[in-house]
Amino acid sequence: MEATSPGFHRQRNMAQISPVARISDLCIGFFLVLLLALAPVTGSAQGKLKKRVDEDFSRIDTDDNDLISPQEWKRRGNFEALDQDGDGFLSKEEMAALYRAGSRGALEHVNEPVNPPAMDASYETDKIATSALDHVTLCGISRESCKMQDSEAQFQRVGLFETGLGPQFPKEASCLGIDDYFALPYNYKRSSSGARHGGMDMPAAWDTPILAAADGTVVGMYGADNSQRGREIVLRHAPEDTGLPVWLYTQYAHLNQAPTLKLGQRVRMGDLVGLTGNSGLSAQGDRPTTGRRPAIHYAAWFSDSRRYADTGAAIVPEHGFWLDPNGIYRGGPPFDSASLKALPENEKFVLIPVMYTDGTTQPANTRLIWPYTCTHRAKRLAE
C-alpha cells in the first residue's frame, strides 16, 4: 500500500466533498462564529442584571444581615410569592426572581385600540400654555425650570414624597410587582440630593404588553431621546372614565417601540398602549442608556381641572398633584400624598384590580386595572 501523509488525505477528502456539503459546512461555521460573537453580549446582559440585583439588595437590606424583612421591602408587593422557603425574609436569590419575569404579562388576545380611532376633540381645546401654570406646579411636576436649592420644597408641595402604600394582588393572581417604588429617594443615582422617583417601576420581560389602566385619551407622546423616561405615552382620564371624582393622568414610559396611537385618540381600559423596554437617557442625561433593565415606569397625577399643558417634554395638569399610583386603586379619596401617608397601617396595602391574560378582570366590573396582565395561579402552577 502506498504510504501517504495526513496532509494528502485531507486534500483528497476536501476534493471529494460535494458543493452542497461545502455550503452546509460554511453555514455551520458562520453560525458558530455568530454564537461566539453573541456570547459576550449575553454575558454582558447577565452581568448587568447581577449588578442590578446586588446593588438593589444591598440598598434595601438596611441592617446588612443578608436578608430582607417585610419592613425593609417597603410594600413593593409580592413578598410572600418571592419568599419561596417561607421563612419570612428574602434572600438575594429569592429577590432576584423579581427580575426573571418570564412570560407573565403576555396576552392571549391583544386588545388593539379601535380602528378607525375614536378621537377626543377636547384634547386640543383643553390644552393651555405653560405660561398659564403657576411655577410650583410646573417645576414640581415637569421638574423643569427648577432651581436646585428649592426643588425639594417644590416637590413636597405637589406631593412627590413617600406615602407608604403598596400593592396587594388577589390571591388567585400572579402579577408583576415593583422594584423602585413611588418617591424613592434617588440621591444614590442622581446628582441632586433631593431627587425622587416620580412614579414606580415594574420589571418585566422585553416587549411585555403594557395596558391602559382605564378608558382615556392620549394627550402626550415623547421619543426615546427626550428624557430619562425614554419613549412614553400619557393618558388623561375623565371622572366618567374611572368613577373617581378627579381628572386622572397616567404615564407609561421606557417603551421599547414608539406607540402606534395618535394624540387625541381614545383608548379603552386594557387596550395595548406600548411594549416594555428600557429606552431613555442615562442618569446624566447626555446619552441613551444601555444598562437599564426592561421595565415600565408608571406614574400618575390628579387635578380638579380638565386643563393641562404640554411643555414639549412632559404633560402638566393645571392645579396638578402627584399621586402614588397605588392610590388610584383605592376607589376614592384621599388622593393627596399627605393624606395617603397619614392612613392607618392596615390601610396601606391596596387591593389591586387586575386583568388576566384571557381578558377577564377581577373584580368583573372594575373600571381600573394594573398596567400589566396577571396569570391565574392555578394555571401557572399547571404550566
UniProtKB/TrEMBL annotation:
User: Which ranges does the record mark as transmembrane?
Assistant: none
InterPro entries from the entry? Answer: Cell_wall_metabolism_enzyme, Dup_hybrid_motif, EF-hand-dom_pair, EF_Hand_1_Ca_BS, EF_hand_dom, M23ase_b-sheet_dom
Task: Outline the extent of the EF-hand domain.
Answer: 79-105
A Pfam family that this protein carries is Peptidase_M23
Q: Which GO terms describe its molecular function?
A: calcium ion binding; metalloendopeptidase activity
Q: Which PANTHER family match?
A: MUREIN HYDROLASE ACTIVATOR ENVC (PTHR21666:SF270), PEPTIDASE-RELATED (PTHR21666)
Query: What is the protein name stated in its UniProt record?
Result: Peptidase, M23/M37 family protein
Organism of provenance = Hylemonella gracilis ATCC 19624
